[in-house]
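Supplementary material to the annual report.
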Amino acid sequence: MKRLAIIALLPAMLFPQETVAPTVNERVGSVRGANAGDYNIVQSWEFGYRFATIGGDRGKYQSDVNFGNGIRLLGSSLSINSKEGHGRWFDEFLLSTQGLGNDPYESATVRLQKNRWYRYDLLWRQNDYRNPGLVIANGTHAQNTTHRWQDHDLVLFPQNHFRLRAGYSRVKQAGPALSSVLEFDTRGEVFPVFRDIYRQFDDYRIGGDVDFKGFRLTVQRRWSFYKEDTKDDRTTPVTGIAPAAITSFDRSQPYRGQTPGWMGNILGERGWIAVHGRFTYASTVGDFIENESAIGVDRFGAAQNRQILVRGRGNRPVTTGDFTVTLFPAARLTIINHTSASNTRMVGNNFYQQYDNATFTYSSLAFQTLSLRLVTNATDLRYRFSKKFDAFGGFRYSDRRIYSVENTQVTGTPWDGITAEQSNTTKAGVLGINWLPTKNLRLHAESEFGTNDNPFTPVSLRDYHSVRARARYRAKKFTLGAAYNDNYNANSISITSYSSRARNYSGDASIAANSWMSIDGSWSKLHLDTAGGINFFAGAPRTALVSDQSIYVSNLHAVNVGLRFALRKYADLYAAYSVTKDNGDGRSTLAPQATAAGQVFYNVQTFPMTFQSPLVRLSVRINDKVRWNAGWQYYGYDEKFGLIGFNQGYRAHTGYTSLLWAF
Amino acid sequence: MRFAAALCLVVPFFATAQTPNTYVGSTTCRTCHPDVWLNFNKNPHYKSIASGKETPAKTGCEGCHGPGGNHVAAKGGKATIGAFSEFSPSQKLDACLSCHSKDVNRAGVRHSAHTEADVVCSDCHSIHKSPTPKFLLAKPQIQLCYTCHATVRGQFEMPSKHRVNEGAIQCSDCHNPHGNVAPNWRTGTSSRLIATSHDNEQPCLKCHVDKRGPFVYEHASVRVEGCETCHAPHGSPNARLLRRPVVFTLCLECHNGAGTFGRQNAGVRLQSASHNLLDPKYQRCTTCHVRIHGSNSDERFLR
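Predicted assembly:
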């Protein structure tokens, strides 16, 4: 075994710079089960080493990819099944893992069940989550949050007419992330800083199903709790433009929220009619307090201190009801009517107190309400002319009322005593067909066109339409597909008209020429162009209102090609290449514009870049139970214009070598 | 009664049979289909055999394919049995829903976008040869979805994306491929199979729990129109899945004071006159408006 391990790791020593690529879905040969008593066991374990070398902007690489070096349990699976479905304690046990041992994307799933008695599912995930603060924090990539999820679900008597359900989920975030604290650098610029955050969300569920007279009633009670205890202490002085400085800073913003809720669901299908009703109610309450104190020197050199206290509560009850009726009046005809109504009401208040130099200076009490009531009705009709051709059409109607109140104790502020109400009505139609001209060819086309009389924002849908078409040809040895998708929206406003058009085209092919070779590939083009009216203040030495147009053009092409090659039963080779390229609006340089403000917008109207990633994976059979795997994957990112002041391009060679043991 | 209804869905497929059809039991089927039977004990549908309590119309092979008497008598043939390869999409759907129509997460299947496009159960699920340990998927989920959604594949291969290709999350974390009720944000446009989290919230909030609120000062567009107002959830060439490469264009396209938009029906508030956009620090709006998703302390999302 030792000799085997040395042989397996030898190629890794020869190519120390390579790789990184998840291997969970990779075929590594057939596995066979082992029988133990009344059970059959199948398992595979893949241990290996990942390595990565990165050139260029390491921060950007960590935000985009983030694979590192180290020993990993790259993937594993274990399944134990009872042979006859009558195991003593369980009939099925499944365990699969990915990336354990410090990969940025780790997960484990478990299923344990005994027929007729129980079924338990667990999903655990951890993501070392790096994300750029670059658009707001001077190009830094320091955010490195660990994000963990776990979901547990238990069903008792899963095959019975009466089932009990219980569940628990947790979401937890910890590590450095952007805080709401702003600091100065020596140029007087402000930027938010990264602080350790601590957030936790717990969700408890209990409920059950009961079947009666062809209907199933499901009821679920839920309690969710959220807490945030991010704290910020700073004793090291922070200097701004001299002599301004902060010598001590402390802020805590504890938050506690809870959401008790109900969900009820009823389903039934009988002959010519099927009905579905659903009701949910959840009322979230969040209590918060903010305590901030800062001590330092102001820009005139005088000692300064400030304390802020904010406390209050937010409340959001949400009620939804849905009712769907499906009618089958004739064998060829289906009519579906779906009605949905919801009411969301957000009410909050806070009491704000501020003390400067230990002297009370300001306090305010604010109330806010934002209510949404949405009623949606959709009716669809579908007629099957033959087994090969059917057509459908539908009408959607929505009525949304938005009600808003803003109040504050301090009169005269711009946001005091504002009550507003508006309603939006959306009407849309849908038409489509499905056609099978031959047994292997499937065609689908549909169009949606609608209008919204009072869109909420200048970029919301107003007069819009979309066209979608798809063709797929499937034969024994190959599959071909093509799709087209066009979305257009025109939302005229008083400055200028806003319009947005997105056109997507795609094609894909998959060919399994024989048992030892297969090729698959896809190409897609995603084209987006928008033009919107904007107003802003700019100018020197005094600012003035400028009206202009914000244009954005993205012209993305994405290509994937993969080749799988098997050398009899001795080895499998997989090679692939993917590239995503945004050609932008075609410009090669940023041409000087007539005005400084015009230049600011001209520079960001497009964002040409290229992101490419070739990879090769090799899997060699050592014996019936052991295989040696190795892989290399390159990540290359290049942007044409450094929008944040510098080019964030990087090149990374990542790789792994591993041993897979399976039976 | 409910078994009779299920039977009614299957029986028409064997209209060519001249003699009354009978149930023969799964042990008869395995005589000619040993490859299917070999691993059937690992199949969720094996429960119907193991329990020993189901009626023949709900048990094993004949639970889905209908009675096999004529098929046995004719020594095989697709015309004498309920062969899914010969079914139309609606027949496949009806056959599966005869048992699976009452599960909560499949409640919207009749009016889902997939069903409208004739994408039905057996297009995504492989009952006999599934390579996945759960849900009998025809392929691992990501490959399955990419089979038809090549443009989405392109979006997940952008520099800034949700980590679907890396295995951190799956399509079904945010979408319910079986269809769902209408979302309670946005308006009545097609639902795109979006799942709800915590029964009635946007799927984004399932993981991004800190954006859930409620906040005293809500960024109204987040609640009214959804996170997609500013973010492209699959992937984007821009950092933080933003729809624009820089923040200020994203903000100013709404905050232009024009028309009848916004909470007060008087336009979405214009930026302050003190913010000279030529100064780089005012181009990074969320540097100061750091609680842009909602704040409890400041109306302008400053803290």
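Chain A touches chain B through 206 residues (CB under 8 Å).
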